[in-house]
Fold this protein.
Amino acid sequence: MIMKILITGGAGFIGSHLADFLVGKGFKDVYAEYWTGESPENLAHLKNKIKLVKLDIKDTKGVRTAIARIRPDIIFHLAAQSYVTESWKRPKETLETNILGTFNLFDAVIGEGLKPVIISVCSSAEYGMTERSEIPIKESKEFRPISPYAVSKIAQDMLSLQYYQSHSLKIVRVRLFNITGPRKLFDACSDFAKGVAEIEAGKSKSLKVGNLEGIRDFTDVRDAIKALWLLCKKGRPGEVYNVCSGKGVKVGDVVNILVGMSNVKVDVKTDKNKLRIIDDPLYLGDNARIRSLGWKPEIPLEKTLSDTLDYWRGKMNRK
């Protein structure tokens, strides 16, 4: 049987790594949807190995047309406005993209009478403010969102649950914690790695950092992709799974590891503009539920950071 797989948000950080994984597994009918205002640069190396679908997930008619044409057996729903900071600048667009886009996808699937497995990729941001007694964070934790992005992902999460309950769609929900690695933009690991690469290339004189005392839960994107694939096969529709390492890493240790990997002296300076107004000192997930299915993170943080630094070095060399 020929299996058709659709990745919404396929040109993004996680989506492009997922496309790599599926092509590596030998799938021939991989469709990567990307936003009309976006460049599919992350997928350039997969030319002629996947099918690109240029689409605005907010376009109800366009989504219905795409689903009717592709008729996917599996859908990884990753399309989103996924940056917390940006959600404060563009709250309306964030809500429309993440909520209306999800509705459009589910409605199109129902309209075409399809029954694909749908992996609805949500976020640990939904949990929001967290007490020490709630660490590590389980899937049952109460939502206390602190950004428009978090609110939009809660809505996606609950829409996914509702469409499973009301329409028997085979939707598995996933809450990703800090997923990082090559191609990632605007997170601590990526920003620090980019900063070190800029210093090495002579484009910057110092590495500017914010609060280095926070403890975060980092998972390599390649481990996260394996989790998503496992959930296609073993995840229970209607259920939700944290994808996280379950290990806490001090943000300052990330800086120290990257500085130690540099081939030049790196001057680290605190920049008050990089300090967040709300910043949990400790944010750590519980991955027991997905571990019970046979998944565990395997790539050490040092490998993740080394590959991310090399990615940015390559970017600097091409400029």
In short: The domain at 185-217+247-282+300-318 is CATH 3.90.25.10 (UDP-galactose 4-epimerase; domain 1).
